[in-house]
Specification:
The protein has a seven-stranded parallel β-barrel. The chain has a four-stranded antiparallel beta sheet with strand order 3-4-6-5. It contains 32 helices and 16 strands. Helix 11 (about 240-250) crosses helix 12, helix 19 (about 415-445) runs antiparallel to helix 24 and helix 30 (about 625-640) runs antiparallel to helix 31 (about 650-665). It has about 725 residues and is an alpha/beta fold. It folds into three domains: about 1-40 and about 365-450 and about 490-710, no CATH class; about 40-85 and about 185-360, TIM Barrel (Alpha-Beta Barrel); about 90-170, no CATH class. Keywords: Membrane, Transmembrane, Transmembrane helix.
């Protein structure tokens, strides 16, 4: 019975590989639909924070004249959109719409005693236009909060008395300043309202009226302020998110997702779903970076964001700051104008790369009816690939792993299709590079079978010019030489030229096997939510660690004798201080490696400069850990492992490059063609560097042999 089960598992291996390849083929059309989607949104929208401009103008001698001049310069630079926040009384005062007074200031101004037991807020409008536009808005806001108000006039100016302390009055959030909206619209700017969920309770009628006004001003998209979208906090009682979503669809207004937030804005995913993913991604340049970064650095950052991360809106901040060196208040506006509209600015450079300035649009996506069935085939292929990985370690569990994979997938499909897709994508992403590396190691073992010998003078002397006599003399001196040089295991029989050719072939085939995991990643995660980073692929750290650990485990336990015998030998070994130190070093290296991976990985300033240089040179930056480290080391390791057993450790390091190729496609927000070019560049450059390293090794080895030969006594001496 056991023999029959073993035969079934061996026979099943071919069928599972066939199912895996069928899954790869089924994933290609899914990738093609995503490729087409990524071509549909190319225009880049440059947005400036209007409140920052108001604040900068407030430090000028003539704020209104300064504002008008800067708005004109922004249009000339290519900044076509202004972001307008919801308003507060203190912000309206900064903008010159009204003047605020607390109880003490009002008493002094009117030359009357300070009333006891009263803390009211007083305001005077700057003119009739300001009163007509703002008084209804203020009255509606404070009335909704249960705060009484009444008309007030001073020196011919009209205003209001708000029966609440000054500190409370300035914290009330109101809709955006209608005068600012109208002025910006008349000057030809697109408007990006920035709404919060602070105006509560949510009122559907008021929101409808506000969005109708926005639509009349040409608003096509909304950006949210704070940690939640409008309507989120009242959704449980009022279903306000759904009501707000209906209004957005009614007026054809989309939403914006901000990149890099520490915590996603609550309710954004639900609102994105309700608006049929009428979403664009936005990158915000901080006011510190706007002031400190050079224009060319800002341009490079924007270009990388547009190409690699599908960013279609750039939000520019620019707060004023005090400078003792310059003796006044400074701002980053001139720096931003150079970065955006200069001769080599973002508008011109991004346009040359196919990203013209204009109104940002969402991706146009299609969902053909066959998508669902193709994804089912991809799921079957992923389960097969994962089962093959289990079978590589435990051959008798191949069919059991496949059956359990099918049952588990069916259960997850009922519970959560998202978890199913991510789980299978992660499993396939781990399995493919691991299987490729196991195949390479088995091929190396197939060509290095035979007794292992110590590296010593006798072995190399036998290849010298002195012939057998010199070899015998070298062998006689081998023990003393071993003490000087050390011990290494070698495998005879293959010439350097043949080892080079075999290493290159193994490198190519291993890469092809590893890349089998790529279609499963983009086929299973073929959802707009990943492209918009509304949902992220979980398990990136595991994808970076598991293949390395599995390859090391395979080398230690599953090569040579049986795994059980190898495990017993390993457990019986004495643990020394050196082992503990080595484990600590590996742990630190692993933590550093993980800190560099995933969407939150960090890089040094020097490396960022190097990355930018690569980006400018090749257009698409290959991953440095692939072409500078993993691929060259892997190719060198294959070449050396065909002779030296100790070189197998290099194959473990080289596994980083194989898994990194799959991980490149796990960044779903990066366009497919960028990821494809990136891994091909990495393989090409890595192979060239690896061949150079092999040449250096051969040269160093030849020099060492000559040096060693001088210490071998000649026969008859």
């Amino acid at each position: 019975m056991l023999h029959s089960w073993q035969q079934w598992n061996r026979a099943a291996k071919r069928w599972l590989w066939a199912l895996t390849l069928i899954g790869v083929i089924a994933a290609i059309p899914l990738g093609a639909t995503r490729w087409q989607m990524e071509k549909t949104s190319k225009q880049i929208e440059y947005v400036f924070d209007y409140s920052d401009l108001v604040q900068i103008a407030s430090y000028q001698a003539q704020p209104a004249e300064f504002m008008a001049k800067q708005l004109e310069r922004m249009k000339q630079a290519g900044i076509g959109t202004m972001s307008v926040y919801e308003s507060r009384l203190d912000e309206l005062e900064t903008a010159g719409r009204l003047t605020l007074y607390d109880e003490r200031e009002a008493a002094l101004m009117q030359n009357r005693p300070l009333p006891a037991g009263q803390q009211f807020t007083y305001l005077l409008f700057a003119g009739d236009a300001e009163q007509a536009a703002l008084q209804p808005l203020i009255e509606r806001t404070f009335s909704a909060s249960g705060i009484a108000y009444r008309a007030w006039t001073y020196a011919g100016q009209k205003g209001l008395v708000l029966e609440t302390p000054f500190q409370n009055a300035v914290l009330k959030t109101m809709p955006p300043d209608p005068l600012a909206l109208q002025t910006l619209h008349e000057q030809g700017f697109r408007i990006l309202p920035r709404l919060s969920d602070r105006i509560r309770p949510y009122n559907q009628a008021d929101t409808d009226a506000m969005l109708a006004e926005f639509k009349s001003l040409g608003v096509s998209r909304i950006l949210f302020d704070g940690d939640a979208v409008k309507g989120f906090n009242d959704n449980a009682d009022l279903r306000s998110l759904y009501g707000f979503g209906e209004l957005l669809n009614k007026y054809g207004i989309g939403i914006t997702a901000i990149e890099g937030l520490k915590k996603p804005q609550q309710g954004l995913n639900t609102l994105a779903y309700l608006t049929h993913y009428n979403v664009t991604r936005l990158y915000s340049l901080s006011d510190r970076d706007a002031a400190a970064m050079k224009p060319d650095a800002i341009v490079d950052r924007f270009l990388l964001a547009a190409k690699d991360r599908s960013i279609r809106m750039f939000y520019l901040n620019g707060a004023p700051s005090a400078s003792l060196d310059k003796g006044g208040i400074v701002d980053p506006l001139d720096n931003l104008y150079k970065a955006i509209g200069g001769p080599d600015g973002a508008v011109q450079k991004l346009s040359s790369f196919g990203f013209p300035a204009g109104q940002a649009e969402p991706f146009e996506r299609s969902a053909p009816g066959w998508n669902k069935y193709a994804k089912m085939v991809v799921c079957l292929g992923a389960v097969s690939l994962i089962a093959l990985l289990v079978g590589a370690f435990f051959e008798n569990l191949l069919l059991a792993a496949f059956a359990l994979g099918l049952l588990g997938s069916a259960a997850l499909y009922v519970l959560s299709t998202s978890i199913l897709e991510q789980g299978l994508a992660l499993g396939a992403g781990i399995s493919a590079p691991t299987l490729g590396l196991i195949w390479a190691m088995n091929r190396v073992r197939a060509h290095t079978d035979g007794p292992r010998r110590y590296v010593g003078a006798g072995d190399w002397a036998a290849r010298g010019e002195g012939g057998a006599a010199e070899a015998d003399a070298a062998a006689a001196n081998a023990p003393s030489m071993r003490k000087q040089i050390g011990l290494k295991w070698i495998f005879p029989g293959l010439s350097p030229g043949r080892r080079m050719l075999m290493a290159i072939m193994l490198f190519i085939v291993t890469a092809l096997i590893s890349m089998i995991g790529i279609p499963f990643v983009f086929g299973l995660l073929n959802n707009i939510t990943y492209s918009l980073v509304l949902q992220q692929f979980r398990g990136v750290s595991l994808l970076h660690l598991a293949p390395i650990a599995l390859v090391a485990l395979y080398i230690i336990l599953f090569t040579g004798q049986s795994a059980w015998v190898n495990l017993r030998k390993l457990l019986a070994m004495n643990i020394t201080v050196l082992w503990v130190a080595a484990a600590g070093i590996l742990g630190v290296a692993g933590l550093y490696y993980l800190s560099r991976t995933g969407n939150a990985g960090t890089a040094s300033a020097l490396e960022l400069m190097f990355r930018n240089a690569l980006e400018q040179t090749f257009g698409v930056r290959p991953r440095t850990k692939e072409f500078l480290l993993a691929h060259p080391v892997f190719l060198l390791g294959l070449f050396l492992a065909l002779r030296y057993r100790a070189a197998w450790v290099l194959l473990i390091v080289g596994s980083i490059g194989q898994l990194s190729m799959v991980d490149t496609f796990a960044h779903i927000h990066t366009p497919l063609h960028i990821s494809l070019i990136r891994i091909l560049l990495g393989l090409g450059f890595g192979a060239v560097i690896g061949i150079v390293l092999i040449g250096i090794w051969q040269l160093a080895e030849a020099v060492w042999r000559r040096s060693l030969w001088k210490h071998v006594p000649k026969s008859g001496a």
